[in-house]
Each structure stands twice: as structure tokens, then as C-alpha cells.
Amino acid sequence: MSGRLKGRLIGLGVTGSIAAYKAVELLRLLTAAGADVVVMLSPSATRFVGPLSFAALSRHPVETEVLDLLPDGRIGHIVIADSADAIVVAPATAHFLGAMANGLAGDVVTATCLASSAPVVVAPAMDGDMWTHPATVANAARLREFGYHVVPPGAGPLASGQSGTGRLAELPSIVDVVVAAVAGRAIRQADPAARPPLAADRPREADLVGRRMVGTAGGTREPIDPVRFIGNRSSGKMGVAVARAALDRGASVTLIAAAVEGAPPEGAHLVRVETTAELQAALRRDVIDADPPPDALVMAAAVADFTPLQPADEKIHRGVSLTLELVPTPDLLAEVAGTVNPPVAGADRRPPVLVGFAAETGGLERAAEKLRAKGVDLLVANDVAEAGSGFGTDTNRVVILDRAGAQEALPLLTKREVADRLLDRVARALDARDAAGQTEAMQESTKARGAEVHR
Ligand SMILES: Cc1cc2nc3c(=O)[nH]c(=O)nc-3n(C[C@H](O)[C@H](O)[C@H](O)COP(=O)(O)O)c2cc1C
């Protein structure tokens, strides 16, 4: 369930176990639950996993050296110790248990735990004989005496090739223990300035790591009969370029593709649709009803505005004339925007950043009105009648409009560059959304504490 750790800062300590790679997925689960996570690696852990994935996923620099100061001169492990709502050490080695049991603060993980009054969750992982050694048993018992939550390892095959008890507990169960450990406690520090610093401007190659994007591309086709359809000139190149760029920047991408030219991007989860009705069903499944919802939805598909009222079951044969009755299709962008934005009260879902595309001919005046009417965050407007712009070309000249009323007119660019400029805006909007979520959670927590005090 998303949102269980909304606004919380969790310190994730990783020590030198073969299971250290699993901590990347644990980080992902914690962030999916709404937590802001800062990662600490023991020097041994850095031999098993590099800091890059952790840094990209957490958006914080990774702490690896207890003696290094933060760029602003603050002491990293003290900042984490004082601002984290909980510290979770997973996997925790036998060495970590022994050091902690004896109050030894030789690395950033142990030093942070020792310096903190936050709840500590420890998930050991080790060889079976190590886990049952009397020293380890005594160390784990000592940690429980401190009030630490020790999540016992499970049984199964171990790195040594043997079977036994020592496997890192299942990751969702570790998240559950973290959630229970912070339940009922006020958020300790919501001021981003007092929390660990965010990574300085992340490069485009990594600024969507950990984000989920749904994109639509191509033109829908509305059947007249089994062999004919009403279509449009969309090549799908713009939507495919957005999907490809998002993948290159680390996002996981679902591409809902109507009729598109060329190969879809490798690595995207591809959902093929033909009609507007199929596109609507895919959006309902992958966006409106998805839990958690995606972080961003970029609707670049050219959706039919009309569909035949009654498509013929059999091929219509040549005749003198043919009159088709067309009915309007549902406005999919408006439907998605109306459902997810604003989110249902109390649903604890972070609404996706919504991006619409508006292809117009003869000026872009209607686009601003469309943005307001549909309630999207960003609208990419292009005049498809202009040379080098619009259908089938590899270039585009667009104006990006935002909710604040600003318009950014881009020069004639390749569709890939347009996609990247657009995703720059999406990445910034997501970062701003996260920061706002922290402040909001802090306010809720303060209000709840106030109510408790006055009871
Ligand atoms: C391949 C390999 C796997 C290891 N796996 C574990 C493990 O799962 N659990 C453990 O307690 N120690 C394990 N160790 C030993 C630790 O890495 C070692 O005790 C180290 O000093 C732990 O340091 P740290 O607790 O500061 O990270 C492993 C060592 C190697 C070489």
C-alpha cells in the first residue's frame, strides 16, 4: 500500500553481506511507501554494491565514510541520526550485530545508530552457523534489550551453498516492521534544510530513476467495418520519443501504443491498442485504478474525436453513396485528470504529473484554454500545419504551457530533444511534488499531535 511512510525520513544502513544487493529493492519499496530515504553503506558493503544505484534511487548522496563531512560542513551521520524517523539496517552482518551490541561506532552505519534516538530495525543475514553462534545470539538479544526491532532471518538456501537459517527476511515484511516502528510518532524533521542534503543537480541520465511513467503514442483507429477505419496522420514518433527518453533517464515506462510507425522502444512495457475505447480501458487499468499510480502520464497519442455509431459487422460493399453517423469519443485526458487530480480525499495517493499534447492548426490560442479546461499540469502545443512540425516528421516546434500560465516556446528541435526538454519539466515537477508531500505530512503530523495533547 502506498503512502504508509509518507513524509518520513528513513536511514537505510547496508552492511557487508552477500544479500546487500537486495537493499536496492528495499530502498525502492520504502520510497514507494512514500518515504524519503538516505542510504549509508559500511566500507565492506561498498565491496558488494556500489553507491550509484542507491544515490540515483534515493536522490541523496550515499554516506560511506564516517569521518567525511557533508559539503556544507555538517556531520553526515549526526544529521541522519537526528532527522531520521527510523533507521533500518538490512542486511545486517554478524559483525554489525557485534559492534552495535558493544557500542562500537567504527563506521557510518553503527555511528548513526549509536547517535540516534529513532527506532532501529535490524534485519540480519548471514551463514546459518554464524546466526546460531552463541556470540551472535547474545548480540541479537542485546540489541533487543536496546529496544531495536530485530527481524529474524528466514530459512532457505544460503550463499555458502548450504541451506539453513540466515536468509534476509522478505523485504515487504521488513517494510511492515518499519511502518509499525514509526506508527503514532510525529515526523521528527520535515524541514528539508535540516535533513540530509539532496544530490546536486542530477544528470538527465538518472533524474527519473525510480519513477514510473505511462505514455501514450500513435493514432487511434475507429472501425467503419472489418476492413476500414477512420484514422489520423499521427506517426506516434513523438510519444515513442518521450518513452525512449524516459527509459534512458531511468524511469520504468508503460507505453500504450495505438498505430505507431517503426519499432517501439526496447525496455518499455508495451500495451497495444487500436481504438479510443481500448485506449480508455488501458488508461483506466494502468493509471486510474493503478495502486500506486504512475508518477507521470504523458498523453501524446492522437485520439479520434469521433467514432462510427454502428460499425458494420460485414464489409460494406461499393454503392452509390455512404453516410456514416459519427458520435463523439470520450475525452480521455479530461477523464484521467478529473479522476486523479485532485486525488480522492483521504486516498493517500500522490497524483501523477499529467502532460497533454494539443495538435492545432493555425495558431496555438486554444491551447491555454485547453490546459485550464482539462486540468493538466503541462500541455505541449504544436501547430501541425507548420513546416517541420507535427505528423510524420522527426522534428517538432512546440510551446510548453504550464498551470501557472507560463509558456515556454522551444525552437525547432528533434522530437527526442523535445522529449528531453519536456521530461526536464516533469522531473522538476516530481521533485517539487515530493518536497510538498513532506511539508504536508509534517503539518498533518503536527496537527494530529496537537489534537492528542489537547485531549
Ligand atoms: C562473499 C562474502 C559474503 C559474505 N556474506 C556475509 C553475510 O551474509 N553476513 C555476514 O554477517 N557476513 C558476511 N560476510 C562477511 C562480512 O563481509 C565481514 O564480516 C565484514 O567484516 C562485515 O563488515 P560490516 O559489518 O562492517 O559491513 C561475507 C563475506 C564475503 C566475502
Gist?
The chain has helices at residues 22-32, 45-48, 51-58, 76-83, 94-101, 108-114, 128-132, 134-145, 171-182, 237-248, 276-288, 332-340, 365-374, 415-454, and strands at 9-14, 36-41, 86-92, 120-124, 149-150, 154-157, 163-167, 212-217, 222-223, 229-230, 252-257, 269-272, 296-299, 306-308, 326-328, 353-360, 378-383, 395-396, 398-402, 407-409, 413-414. The protein has 455 residues and is of the alpha/beta class.
Question: Could you describe the 3D structure shown?
Answer:
The chain is an alpha/beta fold and 455 residues long. The chain folds into 2 domains: 9-194, Flavin prenyltransferase-like (Rossmann fold, 3-Layer(aba) Sandwich); 204-438, CoaB-like (Rossmann fold). Helices cover 35% and strands 20% of the residues. The protein contains 14 helices and 21 strands. The strands form 6 sheets. An 8-stranded mixed beta sheet has the order 12-11-8-13-16-17-19-20, sandwiched between helices. Strands 2-1-3-4-5 form a 5-stranded parallel beta sheet, with helices on both faces. Strand 6 (154-157) and strand 7 (163-167) form a beta hairpin. It is elongated and about 95 Å long. The model has no long low-confidence stretch (mean pLDDT 89). The structure holds flavin mononucleotide (FMN). The site of flavin mononucleotide has 17 residues, from helix 5.
Radius of gyration: 26 Å
**Share of residues in strands:** 15-25%
Based on the coordinates given, report the CATH architecture of the largest domain. 3-Layer(aba) Sandwich
Task: Output the CATH class name of the largest domain.
Answer: Alpha Beta
Largest pleated sheet: 8 strands, mixed
Q: Structural class, please? A: alpha/beta
Helix content: 25-40%
Shape: elongated
Order of the strands making up the biggest sheet = 12-11-8-13-16-17-19-20
CATH superfamily of the largest domain: CoaB-like
CA(first)-CA(last) distance: 30 Å
Count of discrete domains = 2
Number of helices: 14
Number of strands: 21
